[in-house]
Amino acid sequence: MRLPVLLGALLAAVPGAADEAPDGRYRAVIDELVATWPALDRPGPGAPGLALTCLDTPGEPRFVGARQEMVIQASLAAVTAILDDVAHYADLYPDVVAVSVVAGSQSGSRYLTAWERRVPLFFVANTRFSLMNDVDRSVPERVVYRYWLQARGRLTQSDGVVILEALGRDQVRFVEYDYFEAGWGPLPVGVVWTKSLRGLFMSDLSLKLKAEHAAWSYREIHAEATRLWELDGPLVARCRASSRPASLR
């Protein structure tokens, strides 16, 4: 569920009212991935604490895909408590104005979230959209968070999953897949990928830091995530150089 925290200025180019989103291109791929877990593919080169693999959609260079993997030094309960705390997403993730569970939307493990995020251009209104979420806790020591676009505006495609697996009492394997496309307008392909990968990095590291340093303030978390991003400047170039076609294997 990292996608909403990374789109920022990328979504400023094309205005438009939200409407119901069709099934995303990668929804079936992610469903199969979860059904056949554990996956066989290996992480690509990444920054300290985060392995990042770029996933390309052939013929559509602005359709961003990424696989992220890291180990969080905390209990599974501590990590899931953060992801379940939707009310504090706006504190944890940069540029998110507000997130809430839509009243009356919860049915079993499924619920709808409404998002508003800040676009860092003073003349562009905030962007709003909604995601359907499903949380699967049926396998012991594993929690799966699925999310997909429900109502779209500038964001036209979004499918993703976070898989958490306990490796021990205080260690969790985190794997995330994200696929998304938006009204990027005239932005060059390189800019689309750079800003998208930075957003993924910042949101993933914010989660990791919050879980590992529960006493830290959100300001401290954001500062450390920014420092780690700046520490590994070649991350984007390495990820793009080793990118592969988006597929299950």
Domain module count? 1
Distance between termini? 22 Å
Mean pLDDT: 82
Low-pLDDT runs = 5-18, 120-124
Annotation keywords:
27% helix, 249 residues, 6 helices, 32% strand, Alpha-D-Glucose-1,6-Bisphosphate, Chain A, domain 4, 10 strands
Task: Give an overview of the whole structure.
The chain is an alpha+beta fold. The chain has one domain (3-243): START domain (Alpha-D-Glucose-1,6-Bisphosphate, Chain A, domain 4, 2-Layer Sandwich), CATH 3.30.530. The protein has six helices and ten strands. It has helices at 27-35, 76-84, 89-92, 189-212, 218-231, 235-241, and strands at residues 19-20, 51-56, 64-72, 96-101, 110-117, 127-136, 142-152, 155-168, 171-182, 244-245. Strands 1, 2, 3, 4, 5, 6, 7, 8, 9 and 10 form a ten-stranded mixed β-sheet that branches. A hairpin with a 2-residue loop joins strand 7 (142-152) and strand 8 (155-168). It is globular and about 45 Å long. Mean pLDDT is 82; it is low at 5-18 and 120-124.
